[in-house]
Amino acid sequence: MLGKSYFDVARAIHRAGSFDDLVELLVTELPLLLGADEVLVTGVSPLSGFCSVAGHGPIAKVLAERIGDVNRLMPEHPLSRRVDFENPGDLGFALSDFVSPEEYRSSAFVRELFGQTETSDVLFGMLVQQRRRKAFLQCYFSGGSVGLQARERFDAILLTARGVADRLEAHHVESSVRRRIFAGSAKSPLAIFIVNLQAEICPLNHAAVELAERWWEADEALRMLPPSRYAELEKVLDASWENPVDAHWSDVTLDLGGGEMAVHALPKLSGEIILILQMPGVAEAMDEVSSILTRRQREIMDWIAEGKTSGEAAIILGISPRTVEKHLEAVFQRLGVENRIAAMRRYLDLKRGL
């Protein structure tokens, strides 16, 4: 039986609004739910190996402070030759499935990083498994082998959290692209391309098709990035990740057929890269807030930021509360947020140029 406590945690995880919120729930709620001493989430880059550690206990502290040593010692981990960490399966697995506590504690990996440790078993699971980033959920136990109920709960939480991480990544990409597009205007159209896993560039909107017709040969359906430039782009974008799910836009210089030019690039977990560039020869866009929101929407958000309710903003502006609410719904869509608090924060950030 998973029990009510499991469903309480699973419900909270399902409602997580960001990857950081999801990780915080996992590392704080799972120890009590599973009887673990410590829970942490580690992020892995295909280019640089282990790159992030999130947790509140002593193991997380050591790993976070010694990321370089972790990568150097990973070949000495007792599971490294017994588990395919690139594809460990859909469910979790336990250290005790493969090695004894004594073998684990006497390994070079444990001795050099932790010295003496009371850990007797560890549950591992793949939280994020994509081309550009992976993340592992790890639960450490000192009270003997992991029980059946703990393993069942771990597997159920892992599957729930994995689905939430997928949703959060999709939402992040959508809102990031939306904000970038809305930063343009009718006088500064943006061309959108995508780079697939074969390093092929494909136009995605009318402006991009127009550029492709202007720059490419008549029978050139796709444009290949040279291997050296693709490798350089991959290296730059590897530093774009804020966590194993969210990446930010990076400014790069690429030749998409019309010569070297500035391009905004956003990597996706799947390995694809979204490219956005302003149509050459077109004037720069207006400031970001003005390009995203109408004048009336900016007026409403100014009053909301002052702490006014929808009714109070309606009275000040001489419109109905219903009209204010409809404008706020449009603001949420354009800013890629779900409530007025998040909208207010994003609006103020945009006004500050952040």
**Main sheet strand line-up:** 8-7-6-11-10-9
- Helix proportion range: 40-55%
Number of domains: 3
Number of strands: 11
CATH architecture of the largest domain: 2-Layer Sandwich
Q: How large is the radius of gyration?
A: 24 Å
The number of helical runs is: 14
Distance between the termini: 48 Å
Write the layout of secondary structure elements.
Elements: H1 3-14, H2 19-34, E1 38-45, E2 49-54, H3 58-65, H4 67-73, E3 93-94, H5 101-106, H6 108-114, E4 121-129, E5 134-141, H7 148-182, E6 190-195, E7 200-203, H8 206-215, E8 223-224, H9 227-238, E9 250-255, E10 260-267, E11 273-278, H10 288-292, H11 295-305, H12 310-317, H13 321-335, H14 340-351
Antiparallel strand pairs: 1-2, 1-5, 3-4, 4-5, 6-7, 6-11, 7-8, 9-10, 10-11
Helix pairs in contact: 1-2, 1-7, 2-7, 11-12, 11-13, 12-13, 13-14
Features:
14 helices, 5-stranded antiparallel β-sheet, single chain, Arc Repressor Mutant, subunit A, 354 residues, alpha+beta, flat, Beta-Lactamase, 3 domains
